[in-house]
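for the recovery benchmark. tokens below, seq after
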């Protein structure tokens, strides 16, 4: 945890800037901002690049599938490794790995620009890169999440979690929007160079934090016994399990963002610049709500508010699916992002507050499995549904399923509905 003097000096937990007054936390969040910006820029670039090559929405879904298979397969094992090893070393190794993958994509972009390139071979190589991306993600995500509680004192965890979500979302907005702009202005290859520089900068910022060795954990415990402990804790902590589950299923079926390249190119016809803005709309909405929650945190009935917000998110997805006008589509995703931001903050705060220090890696990995299932599997589900049903019907269907998930949870999970902190 943060040293005792720092914890003693920061007494005013109502101060919205309390956690960012800690120098080490600022380094952690600065590195996170640059890192997430680079990752979002890369995902935006890949979505556009793959669809331009194939003109097939299923190919976008296959990008997500190629990442989620290794990430889900290794999530529980990687969570145990995060708990028994220095989290700083894992983060630095992960950023270095992403840098190497960005270099490989840059080389592929050069081949693709050549006259004699095999476009399907390039596409398959991109899938391969994202397979290794999923392996690295299974480690670096839990390590970053677990590190927060070792940087700030416990009484500032809610504030630190909100800032963490705000940093992630603002970086996501920056990466999505900048990705679209840069593709239009300087092309795919040069955009990948920018991504490499962002990753290098984040590496040096992460290097500023102190080592984060394991805390109060029997490092001789067998791996699968440790994994079972993490799974058992999440399942038995009903508020945490419920928050993860409803968020997973809502985003799994409501993953309209995966089809944004199709809407931008073929339905709204707004090109890569408009694609960047449309791709960033959800995150812009989310960062607006996170800023509001930083200064005016929810005081009660957070579980009920989360469910209502997810229901509103489903309505926004339906509206986006039916829209043929750019500004209406942008507004639907913006408001949907604001409502999704409520869910993100509640889930993240519940996890930080209820998880003991020695289990943070494993619990973060389980949370990561839910997030991966919702985002990357949702991307594959959206691509497959678009191939079978058509793009617009598939998005509308996803929004309707999100509403069905909320209604079911409202009546079947009273613990979550009544939860507050």
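predicted aa per position
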């Amino acid at each position: 945890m943060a040293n005792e003097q720092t914890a003693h000096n920061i007494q005013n937990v109502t101060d919205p800037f309390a956690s960012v007054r800690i120098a080490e936390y600022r380094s952690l969040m600065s590195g996170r901002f640059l890192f997430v910006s680079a990752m979002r820029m890369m995902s935006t670039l890949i979505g556009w690049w793959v669809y331009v090559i194939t003109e097939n929405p299923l190919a976008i879904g296959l990008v997500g599938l190629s990442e989620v298979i290794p990430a889900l397969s290794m999530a529980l094992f990687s969570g145990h490794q995060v708990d028994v090893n220095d989290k700083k070393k894992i983060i630095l190794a992960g950023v270095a790995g992403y840098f190497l993958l960005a270099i490989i994509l840059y080389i592929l972009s050069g081949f693709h620009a050549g006259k004699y390139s095999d476009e399907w071979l390039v596409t398959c190589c991109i899938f391969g890169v994202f397979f290794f991306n999923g392996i690295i993600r299974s480690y670096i995500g839990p390590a970053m999440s677990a590190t927060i509680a070792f940087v700030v004192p416990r009484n500032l965890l809610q504030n630190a979690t909100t800032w963490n979500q705000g940093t992630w979302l603002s970086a996501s907005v920056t990466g999505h929007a900048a990705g679209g702009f840069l593709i239009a202005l300087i092309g795919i290859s040069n955009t990948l160079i920018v991504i490499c520089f962002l990753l290098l900068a984040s590496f040096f910022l992460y290097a500023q934090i102190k080592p984060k060795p394991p805390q109060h954990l029997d490092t001789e415990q067998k791996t699968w016994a440790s994994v079972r402990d993490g799974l058992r804790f999440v399942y038995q902590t009903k508020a945490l399990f419920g928050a993860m589950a409803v968020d997973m299923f809502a985003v799994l079926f409501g993953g309209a963002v995966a089809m944004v390249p199709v809407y931008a190119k073929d339905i709204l016809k707004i090109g890569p610049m408009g694609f960047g803005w449309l791709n960033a709309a959800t995150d812009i909405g989310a960062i607006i709500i996170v800023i509001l929650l930083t200064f005016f945190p929810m005081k009660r009935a957070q579980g009920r508010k989360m469910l209502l917000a997810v229901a509103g998110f489903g309505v926004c997805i339906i509206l986006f699916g039916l829209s043929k006008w750019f500004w209406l589509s942008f507004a639907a995703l913006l408001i949907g992002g604001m409502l999704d931001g409520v869910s993100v903050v509640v889930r993240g705060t519940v996890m930080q507050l209820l998880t003991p220090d020695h289990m943070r890696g494993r619990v973060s990995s389980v949370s990561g499995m839910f997030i991966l299932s919702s985002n990357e599997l949702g991307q594959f589900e959206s691509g497959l549904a678009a191939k079978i049903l058509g793009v617009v019907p598939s998005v509308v269907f996803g929004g309707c399923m999100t509403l069905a998930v909320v209604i079911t949870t409202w009546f079947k999970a009273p613990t979550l509905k009544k939860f507050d902190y």
